[in-house]
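Q: I have 554 residues here and want to know how they pack in 3D. Can you give me a structure?
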Amino acid sequence: MTTSPGTRTADILVIGWGLAGLVAAAEAANAGRRVIIVDQEPRTNLGGQAWWSFGGLFLIDSPEQRRMGIRDGIELARQDWFGTAGFDREEDAWPRRWAEAYLQFAAGEKRAWLRERGVGFFPVVGWAERGGYGALGPGNSVPRFHITWGTGPGVVAPFRAAVEQAEKEGRLTILPRHRVTELVTRDGAVVGARGEVLETSAAERGVASSRTVIGDFEITAGATIVSSGGIGGNHTLVRKAWPRRLGKAPRNMLTGVPAYVDGSMQSVAEDAGAKLINGDRMWHYVEGIRNWDPVWPGHGIRILPGPSSLWLDATGQRLPVPLYPGFDTLGTLEHLRKTGHDHSWFVTTRQIVEKEFALSGSEQNPDLTGKDIPLLVRSRLAKGPTDPVQAFLDHGEDFLVDEDLDRLISRMRELPGGDALDADRVRQEVVARDREIENDFTKDAQIAMLRSMRAYRGDKLIRTASPHRLQDRSAGPLVAVKLHVITRKSLGGIETDLDARVLDADGNAVPGLFAAGEASGFGGGGVHGYRALEGTFLGGCLFSGRQAGRAAAR
């Protein structure tokens, strides 16, 4: 093993170059501080998992909302946030304060701050996490999901540019392949970090890289910011933290984030005095499909579904009210985990797939990511599914297409785990749903909600198919999709105050140590509480990274 020459010094050390880390570094460099950023991955991964995201951002009373006829305000948003979060612990004191501060940010300067940096938004506002439990229950009362023009890379771009400009000017240093194993403390204060230098890797973005150690390093800094992400790429940690309230952890899960999202900095921060809270709060999806063209091990893609598909558990039983596609992520996860099976099913039609299936991820939305307006018009408004969705119809092992319901059910039963499916029950559910939709009146709450949602222009234009029978031949062949649990976000993390200062077990700030992004539960150790409203993960990285960078620079 060789040793890196000497000890580097900086005013501020940022550990992790995801969105929160880039924002923090850009803010600190802008304040005139000398900054070093370290990350265990090759530089191809600059931007972290935010680069892979759909780019959704939560805004309150935006011009885009007003143009779509949406009436929103901070009081309604606060009702939704706190009704969704369900804060109920002593440890929620700082997360509550972060939630209030973030709401003020989302209703205030967030959009203008991003617009100043060149970030734009798709004009149609999406309606995620619709809830369905009543005004005080979880969910968004109105559409608030603003898709960034350029998706995840479009959010990352201005902060990456700011960091690279500071690097060019000699005010900032980026050190790839530097894995932190220890935070250095002196007289109770964190004064930097030590770790291992990993061998150079030519791995492309997201692809697992070598862990061969070729040296070590030490960096001394006046302030250290931990922005190392969550645990979604580490199934061992996910299962260890899995809460009893969500049933048993799945035996088989897909992975919605690259393998480097491994939670390795949690114990390192804890050893330096940081208090970790709300580790049992997590955000995983149940609409995961196996990527036919994977980038990382176990790579799963999430379907962002519209509301029309019939959702069945592994036995063929329809999911209860209001667990419809796009309504309640964790409520659906909790229900399905208690069935004893790791998968569920959509039964739908090609027409619904064409109109309502979007895929999460920047690489699955080339029109939005590439800011390609002609492609967007062809893919979103023309007849037929988008090219990425068509690729899954053609190659995805979880997709089955058939003109005949009985044949479709037989093929569903042939897939692994399909023997749990009760064919008669599936047939009964499909036929009963089709009877209800033939009438303008219905007792079926999903159909009633579907018709109600089409009153919103955005849903009618690009997110909901015209209501029809599943066995309507004019709607195209039937489609069945086998769905899996897919790991994604940690909702808990390092406890911080509103200046992103890391707190110890006694509630005191650890001198010299800050945390931001998913490592801090997107702020405070869990700004979302038990559940999220969507569009709030990237936003939490932006806000907490900004707070950490500015406070560390002071």
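Q: Anything worth noting?
A: The chain has two domains: 14-227+241-281+492-553, 284-486. Residues 151-168 form the longest helix (18 residues).
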